[in-house]
Write a structure and sequence with these properties.
- By secondary structure, the protein is of the alpha+beta class.
- The chain folds into three domains: about 90 residues, Rossmann fold (3-Layer(aba) Sandwich); about 120 residues, D-amino Acid Aminotransferase, Chain A, domain 1 (2-Layer Sandwich), CATH 3.30.470; about 60 residues, ATP-grasp fold, A domain (Dna Ligase, domain 1, 2-Layer Sandwich).
- It is about 30% helix and about 25% strand.
- A five-stranded antiparallel β-sheet has the order 14-13-12-15-16, sandwiched between helices.
- The two termini are about 30 Å apart.
């Protein structure tokens, strides 16, 4: 098979591992810079061009689209879908997962466990918004944040009111969520491939840090998840329409709750912590499922 990886940095561990796993199984692998792709949008002969040539003849595409280039990256991926190229994660599904509010609404509709969450823009009913999620301490998130950026823990009523008022003056969209104190600064990353959790790790934030992101100095270790946690991760991936994703869970007193779903999860931390060949599992999944013009979301948002 000819497999294309859409990624800006070919040297990243995740991208190198995918190339290595694909070549090991006899496939032709190529990485192209998403932002350097350009498109010919026509009714009967859509094209994606790169370096003056058409990118054609590919059996599958693996989108590794960074959050900062979501808009253009999804435009390129949609063009490949128009050309009939199989995408391991479809543009519609990635778009859902990148919209934090939309993803939470979809998960809630499916009855999947979530932290109690409020959403606001310019409300002046700050006290009621805080009361809605159970009061301080609580977590306030900007919709656009990634890797723990734009996420603030307000440990008192006064701090929460001050932060919310500041976000309101900035005309920012933000989420207010209950603080799951019993998780003790840790979360669980479940790596889902084709409707199965193939690996899971516990991420622990450094001392004094409530965010467990490895980018912020957190540590990772292998963990055995419960059947309920496994089911929650699989159902969350299905609700988004994602074949490949990282589902981040917190262990709360009322069961596992989903914090976030990452449609472009990194491989380095979880492969290192668990020893699982996740890149190989992704290539195997593509081998089983890749077909021209195959989609599961049918263009639904």
């Amino acid at each position: 098979m000819k497999i294309l990886i859409l990624a800006r940095n070919p040297k990243l561990y995740s991208h190198q591992r995918l190339v290595e796993a694909g070549q090991k199984r006899g496939h032709e692998m190529r990485i192209v810079n998403t932002l350097r792709c350009y498109m010919n949008i026509t009714s009967h002969n859509p094209e994606v061009r790169y370096g003056g040539k058409v990118l054609d003849g590919y059996d599958a595409v693996i989108p590794r689209i960074g959050a900062s280039v979501t808009f253009y990256g999804l435009a390129v991926l949609r063009q490949f879908e128009m050309m009939g190229v199989y995408s391991v994660n479809e543009s519609v599904a990635i778009g859902r997962s990148r919209d934090k509010l939309r993803s939470l609404q979809l998960l809630a509709r499916k009855g999947i466990g979530l932290p109690v969450t409020g959403f606001a823009h310019a409300t002046t009913e700050t006290e009621d918004l805080i009361r809605l999620v159970g009061g301080a301490p609580l977590v306030i998130k900007l919709l656009e944040g990634t890797h723990g950026q734009g996420v603030v823990l307000a440990d008192s009523q006064r701090a929460a009111e001050s932060i919310i008022d500041s976000f309101r003056r900035l005309r920012a969209h933000f989420l207010v969520q209950e603080f799951i104190e019993e998780s003790k600064g840790s979360d669980i990353r479940c790596f889902v491939v084709g409707g199965k959790v193939v690996a899971a790790m516990k991420r622990q934030g450094k001392e004094g840090e409530f965010r467990s992101n490895l980018h912020r100095g957190g540590t990772a270790s292998k963990i055995k998840i419960t059947p309920e946690e496994r089911s929650t991760a699989v159902r969350a991936a299905k609700a988004m329409g994602l074949n490949i994703c990282g589902v981040d869970l917190l262990r709360s007193n009322h069961g596992p709750v989903v914090m976030e779903i990452n449609s472009t999860p990194g491989l380095e931390g979880i492969e290192g912590a668990t020893g699982v060949d996740i890149a190989g599992a992704i290539i195997e999944f593509i081998e089983r499922t890749a077909e021209p013009h195959k989609t599961q979301t049918k263009g639904k948002g």
